[in-house]
Structure formats: structure tokens, C-alpha cells
Amino acid sequence: MSEPRIHGIVLGGVGGQGVLSLAQIVLEALRRSGLHALQSEIHGMSQRGGSVHAQVCFSEVPLSSPIIDEGCANLLIALEPLEALRYVAMLRMDGHLVVSEEPQVNMEGYPPLDDVYAALKKVRGCHLVDTEDLARKLKHKQAGGMALLGMASKFLPVSDAVWHDVITDRFAAKGARVTEKNIEAFNAGRGLVQEAVGV
Amino acid sequence: MAQGTLALGVEAVGCAAFDAGIKGAFGYPGTPSTEGFEFVEAMIQAEPEGRVAQWAANEKVAYDLALGVSYAGHRTLVTMKHVGLNVAMDAYANSALTGVRGGLVLLVADDPGMHSSQNEQDSRRLAKFAWLPVLEPSTVQECYDFTWRAFELSESLQVPVMVRLVTRLAHCRAHLVRRDVLQPTGLGVAPKETIQDWVLIPSNARRRYVDLLAKQPRMVAELAPMNRVVAGTGRRGVALAGMGRAYFEQLALEHPELLDMPRLEVAAYPMDPGLEPVFLGLVDEVFVFEEDYPVLEERLTFQRAGTIHGRMDGALPRTGELTPRLLKDALGLRTADGKAASTLDLPIRAPRFCDGCGHVDAYEAMQEALQNLGLPGTRVFGDIGCYTLAAQEPMSAIHAVVEMGASISMAVGAAMAGQTPSVAVIGDSTFGHSGLPALLTAADSGVNVTIMILDNRVVGMTGQQPSQALDQVERMVLGMGIPASQVQVLTPLPKQHEANVKAMEAALQHPGPSVVVFRRECIQSLRRGVLKEHDQELKACAEQACCSTEARP
């Protein structure tokens, strides 16, 4: 008998970018796909523009630890390129990164952007997304998060139908138009990864 | 009907309290406990039916409110963070002697690793100090189930019961299965023949202390099913509690050989002292995995020094959060190498003041006033809130932050010791929490102290909860005995900067106590419209010249 596999997703970004709500969407989508999932988040003063990260673990068996150990995550979803670099060591050798190219410079000493991109491109399995350009094309300022999620969805065992249901429920209170725009962004992101790589 | 829902660990406690039929929920915001109250508050607002949910001015007030509900015969929940229990300690320790009528459950969220706290004290120690039971869940479902159990225990043992969470569990979100909801029926007010139990004059208190100690064996007996020894084939064992138990169980999924280790699993205290010898009889050495202080470890070490490994013998770090990695390292489990960390230098992205935050304007006025008066090196006593961010470089505007309300008293003490002018900075909610008695003493002292009250009209840091001091700050200040001539109300805006600097200079130069209120609503709450309805009502009231206008000084 082989041991059950435990999968880990790390989500990183800057306070106010929506890291925690993205994590909640992922958690709910996994749960609706019949998996056991836990989400961990650290906040407090995080909405004040500091680094924020959340983790989601899932498996076919019930889990009890919400924390992913270094080197054990399968996927990193980062809403900001510098923040992505903080969590690279969380990933397994064969792990993937889905990263927004859009920097949030609200701090002293932000390294030259080219150095940040170069460091990310050195990491195997890194998928950079020009969320700014995508948002412009979709005429939807906040498209970035959903597009990243769409791209990340290629690496997660959740069907399109479930993703769409969860996103629809999430934005139901904001009306059909907002839901539509978010699903459009999700689909656009999903289209950016050519081959599906299941975990 | 039983149903499923997604909830954080602290929310699961709030949800269970609602389902177990509480009449009232009380608390004071503090990370990582805040969402526990907010969850049950939302449930109560949706289905009030005589239930109440009320943020209190501080944790002690919250606890006493809950004790009153219990006295009246109803179940009640009170929530706070670990350092909040210090504030409520007088009420908590003495309620052990009075006992309870309706079940009273205290949710305390500890913060090992100090993610957003000033210490990492372990509330299990405070429960032991008060001779009271504490339950320690390790999963979100246990948060829910243990809270139900805590209400039953509270009523059967007639004592308050603590449910202790730590940050990782408090902020772990998972699927939760609920039980059928009980309506708040109530047992009726504490009966006449028990009145003397509630009156802690020395003659009664002596008797009640004996009663409390006499309850200990019953507590142990009733909690016994929550703790157990699991036999194994090896001679190396583990003692597990809280997240230590959660992490170990998950590691055992990937390393089933771990289940050969004999285990002592603890989820409730006081624990049966007979359990430890049974466990120690099975093993030659023990690793103790518990979150925060070495509570179990100390007990085991006392019985078998030299063979117990944990925080005390250096097998685990003495401070900070427990992690799965620490368990792996201690147990010698190998992890496959992951990706290499980035070699690029990654500067810290620290939390900072929001753009347009009024606190920044207030601090700038203070710093310029001190500069103008030739007092640029003046030490300033700060307090707990968003405005604590001013302690960081480059602002470095406050030079001490200890605990809620300390700013005013420390500034008065320093002034008494000759440091004048002395400056305190405190937020409106912290002022209502524990600044009031300090201000009473400040007014009485007559020393040269300038107290800045940064009134952003909400509890900003924890998520813009309502501040109990809303619209009351000047009246409170005057009521504490600060003369009206020494109370100024300013608007912290860049365009008011010059006037604010002048006002601060005048306050600093006044030889006695003076108060400067900087009032402007929190940017976050303004954006969310938290006070919109309140302010519309206030405006309507003012137009009709009714209550709220005469309430203003």
C-alpha cells in the first residue's frame, strides 16, 4: 500500500491584493472536487501593505496540518514578482510557479525589476504572466488575480465546471456582470498554459 | 439539521457556541481571536431571538458581562487573545471560586511566534493558575466539538472552561460539520441558596476555594476520556498536544512507521496524573511536541529527567512556533530537497501606514512641535494599535510600547521622575480599553504630560470594529478631570499641519497635564463605509437638536 500524497499550494502577495480571497476560492474548489483541504493564513496587520501569504494543503485523505514544509509545495501562486521569490524554497524540485509580472513598489530598496525577473526565469517551472497587459486587453482592472488562478488551475485536479461554480458563488452578491468579467479573466489565464500538467 | 460549512478554527468555536444555545457573546478584538466573535456575532444578528453579541470596552468587561449572563442562568461565550486574558485575569481567577450557573466558555487564542503580539505566553499556564479546566483542540472540527464539550463540562462541573487555540489553528480554514442548533433555554437565575457562593467576602471565599480544590478530582475524571496513552512497539515515544498532535498525525500519513511509537495524547487539562507513569513505563525516551511553553514537557521531565526531549533540553528551539519541520528534524525524518532559495537579496516588505492615514499627520505635527521647542530627543510613550507602526524607521516617533494603556501611565511616571515634557500616544479604542483609569491618575498628578489621543473612530488594526469610545472621547477626557482649557481637538490633515504644530507646542509647554485629540476617521473604515449609517443618524439628530448634540462637549 502506498502512502497518500499530500499536495501543497502557497499563495503570496502584498496586503490588499486579495491573496486570502484567492486562497479561499482554491480551498472551496478543492473541497467541491471531493478532496480534503485545509487553508492557513497569517494576518493581523497584513492589510497595511506588508507581505501576505496563505497556504492550502489537500489530499484524498483527511489532513490535520495546515502548514506546508519547505520543499514540499507543488504550486506557488504569486500576485507580485518580488513576493514570489520569497517562497521559491517552499517548492518541490518539480513544483510550478504562476507569477504576476506586475510589481508593487511600496517599500524601500525594491531591487531592479530586471534582476527580479531574471531570478524568476532561472527557476524551473516558472510561468510569468503580464497581468497588466491582460487587464488592459480585458478592460478589467482587477483581472490579474483571476487570470493567475486560471493559469494555476492547469496544475490542480479541479474541473472547469467546479471553478466556474465557485467563482460564480463568490461574486454572486456583486451581480452577473462582475461574475462574467471574473470568469472571462479566469479563462484567459487558463488559455495561457499550453499543456495541462496534472498533479 | 446538521450541516457543513467552511470556517476558521476560531470561527468554529463561535459557531459551536451559537449552536450550543448561548444567550450572549462578548469579546475584545485581538489577533488571532477576532473572527471568533465576529462569526458568532453575524449568526446572532441573522437570528437574534433574544441573543446578544457585544464587543466590550476591554477583556475584563467582556468576561464580567459573560459571568453575568451565566449568573442569569444562560450559556455564554467570551473571546480574547492571550494577552487579553491578562486584562481579564482578575475576573477569570475569581470566577473559579464563584463558579458558574449557565455554561461559560472562554475562547483564548495564543500567538506563539508572536505574529502580531508582544509576547507568546501560554494560556494553559493561566488555566492551571486559576485551577480551571482547559481544552486544547488540534483541528477545526475539534474546535467545534470541544466547544460543545466545554459547555457541557462547564455546567456539570459548575466552573468556567477555557478553549485554547494557537494562531495556526485559529487561522486554519477547513470544512466543518455542525450539529443541530439548541435554542437558548436557560436554567434560571442562580438559586437563592447559592447566593453566598457568589459573594466573595473572605468567609465565603475561603469556603469556595476549598470547594474549588475539592472539584479537582472530578475535573480530572470528566476530562480523562480526552487524554490517552496509545501503546506502540518501539521504546521511543512522543507526547503530543494541540498542533503537535496535528503535525504528528499528518507526518504519520507519509511515514506510517511513526505509529509504532508509543504516544501520550493530551487534549484537556488538568490531566490524570496516573497517565504519565503508564506512558513512561512504555518508553526509554520521549519527544514532546506541544505549542508554546513546555507544559507537558516540564511534567514529564520532573518524573524522568534526562530522557525527555523538547524545548527544555534543546531538541527544539526554546522560543517560537512549533512547525512540522521541527518535528521532522527532531525525529530524524528526511525531506527530499526542494528548489533552491533565491539568491537575490529580498528586502522585508513591512506593514506600513496606509496612504492618507491621519496618524501620520498627527505624528508629523508632534515631531515638528518638539523640534521647534528644542526638544527633538524627547522620548515618547506609545501604545497598541496601527499607530505602533511609528516605532519603525524612519519615523521612530515612539520609544516604548508595552501593553494596552501603558502609554499614559508610563508618561506620567517618567514626568514624575523628571522627564518633562512627557508625551503619551494612545488610540481611541485603547484609550477606552485601559487608558481611562490612567488618565484619571494623570489628571490627579498634575505633572507636565501631553497625552495625544489618536481618534480614528474605530478599532483600526483588527479590522475596523466599532470603538466603544466613538463620539465620546472629549467628554471622557473632561470627566476624568482634565480642565477644558487643556483639551484640544484637532484634525490630522496636511492642510492643518501649521495649526496642529502650534496646538501641540502649546500643550507641550503647559506645565500640567494636557490632552490633544487628533480626530479623523480611519482610511480603511471610511472606504468601507463602516460609520456611514452612524454619521447620518448623528447628523439627523443634530438637525433636530436631540440627544447627540447635547452629548457633545
TrEMBL record, chain A:
<keyword id="KW-0560">Oxidoreductase</keyword>
<dbReference type="InterPro" id="IPR019752">
    <property type="entry name" value="Pyrv/ketoisovalerate_OxRed_cat"/>
</dbReference>
<feature type="domain" description="Pyruvate/ketoisovalerate oxidoreductase catalytic">
    <location>
        <begin position="15"/>
        <end position="190"/>
    </location>
</feature>
<dbReference type="InterPro" id="IPR002869">
    <property type="entry name" value="Pyrv_flavodox_OxRed_cen"/>
</dbReference>
<dbReference type="Pfam" id="PF01558">
    <property type="entry name" value="POR"/>
</dbReference>
<dbReference type="InterPro" id="IPR052198">
    <property type="entry name" value="IorB_Oxidoreductase"/>
</dbReference>
<protein>
    <submittedName>
        <fullName>2-oxoacid:acceptor oxidoreductase family protein</fullName>
    </submittedName>
</protein>
<dbReference type="GO" id="GO:0016903">
    <property type="term" value="F:oxidoreductase activity, acting on the aldehyde or oxo group of donors"/>
</dbReference>
TrEMBL record, chain B:
<dbReference type="InterPro" id="IPR029061">
    <property type="entry name" value="THDP-binding"/>
</dbReference>
<dbReference type="InterPro" id="IPR045025">
    <property type="entry name" value="HACL1-like"/>
</dbReference>
<dbReference type="GO" id="GO:0051539">
    <property type="term" value="F:4 iron, 4 sulfur cluster binding"/>
</dbReference>
<keyword id="KW-0560">Oxidoreductase</keyword>
<keyword id="KW-0004">4Fe-4S</keyword>
<dbReference type="InterPro" id="IPR017721">
    <property type="entry name" value="IorA"/>
</dbReference>
<dbReference type="Pfam" id="PF01855">
    <property type="entry name" value="POR_N"/>
</dbReference>
<keyword id="KW-0479">Metal-binding</keyword>
<dbReference type="GO" id="GO:0046872">
    <property type="term" value="F:metal ion binding"/>
</dbReference>
<dbReference type="GO" id="GO:0030976">
    <property type="term" value="F:thiamine pyrophosphate binding"/>
</dbReference>
<keyword id="KW-0408">Iron</keyword>
<feature type="domain" description="Pyruvate flavodoxin/ferredoxin oxidoreductase pyrimidine binding">
    <location>
        <begin position="16"/>
        <end position="164"/>
    </location>
</feature>
<dbReference type="Pfam" id="PF02775">
    <property type="entry name" value="TPP_enzyme_C"/>
</dbReference>
<protein>
    <recommendedName>
        <fullName>Indolepyruvate oxidoreductase subunit IorA</fullName>
        <ecNumber>1.2.7.8</ecNumber>
    </recommendedName>
</protein>
<keyword id="KW-0249">Electron transport</keyword>
<dbReference type="InterPro" id="IPR011766">
    <property type="entry name" value="TPP_enzyme_TPP-bd"/>
</dbReference>
<dbReference type="GO" id="GO:0043805">
    <property type="term" value="F:indolepyruvate ferredoxin oxidoreductase activity"/>
</dbReference>
<comment type="function">
    <text>Catalyzes the ferredoxin-dependent oxidative decarboxylation of arylpyruvates.</text>
</comment>
<keyword id="KW-0411">Iron-sulfur</keyword>
<feature type="domain" description="Thiamine pyrophosphate enzyme TPP-binding">
    <location>
        <begin position="383"/>
        <end position="517"/>
    </location>
</feature>
<keyword id="KW-0813">Transport</keyword>
<dbReference type="GO" id="GO:0044281">
    <property type="term" value="P:small molecule metabolic process"/>
</dbReference>
